[in-house]
Design brief:
The protein is of the alpha/beta class. It has one domain: TIM Barrel (Alpha-Beta Barrel), CATH 3.20.20. The chain contains nine helices and eight strands.
């Protein structure tokens, strides 16, 4: 794949209230055309307050205005604050111009408090980037596993979900969502997970795999290298790096 053709990174986080200059230099160096950005707050907390997630989304909104040709935004909320979270999701889409919802670890995704958010996003042609991990020593109290993602996806078959990190434990992650055709996986996570991309393409199909870096907490180079290292046909690389997420953003992926 010619990197000059562009890469869309589906999984980027602000650092503090923005993105540093060295981030944008790396974007240019690696041929990243657009970044899809959320903020987990200026100081990351597992269970943010209403004021904290509102501030985080205002920071993303400011970045969207400053870098409108290179930034696509996610709105981020804590579903435990039911009314405030739904209001913020609406604001994120209707005022800030966000295209998706980011859910992290404040509330397991199968919790009933998540349902109104999923329903509104679905009705408004959005999609959900959902943190998921399977930890050997046990997850955080509000942290979703791949099995949780599968449960939610089957409950909402007309919603597009992107399961982040291939579920952390990628072998379990792939198995958990294999029969959930409305779930894509993003490739960020461990940079030493040999075989993960190949296995995801084999069992999920290339159309359900999208590239993510988890920057600024991770780097572009090793994460892009994972895709090239899988030795896929160039057509498949193009789908993972850009074309699949373009279909999601255009509302065509499930059609």
């Amino acid at each position: 794949m010619d990197m000059r053709s562009g890469i869309i990174d589906v999984h980027v986080h602000l650092r503090g209230d923005g993105l540093p200059n060295k981030f944008w230099r790396a974007v240019d160096r690696y041929g990243v055309e657009k970044v899809m950005v959320s903020s987990l707050g200026r100081v990351w907390r597992y269970i943010p307050t209403v004021d904290e997630f509102r501030e985080a989304n205002a920071d993303v909104a400011r970045l969207i205005k400053e870098q409108s040709d290179r930034v696509i935004g996610y709105v981020y909320v804590n579903p435990c604050y039911e009314e405030e979270a739904l209001d913020e999701v609406k604001k994120g889409f209707q005022v800030y111009g966000c295209k998706g919802l980011k859910l992290w670890v404040s509330c397991i995704c199968t919790d009933p408090r998540v349902e109104p958010l999923v329903e509104w996003v679905t009705e408004n042609n959005g999609f959900i980037l959902l943190h998921s991990w399977q930890k050997a020593k046990g997850n955080l109290p509000g942290e979703s596993t791949p099995a949780d993602v599968a449960t939610l996806a089957k409950r909402y078959p007309n919603t597009v979900f992107i399961m982040a990190h291939i579920g952390g434990d990628w072998e379990r992650g792939i198995k958990a969502v294999r029969n959930c055709p409305n779930v894509l996986i993003d490739t960020c996570g461990s940079i030493t997970s040999a075989g993960a991309i190949e296995r995801a393409v084999k069992y999920l199909g290339v159309r359900r795999v999208v590239y993510g870096s988890d920057a600024c907490g991770n780097d572009f180079g090793p994460n892009i290298g994972k895709i090239y290292g899988a030795c896929l046909p160039e057509e498949d690389e193009r789908k993972i790096f850009k074309e699949n997420i373009e279909e999601v953003l255009a509302g065509r992926w499930l059609k």
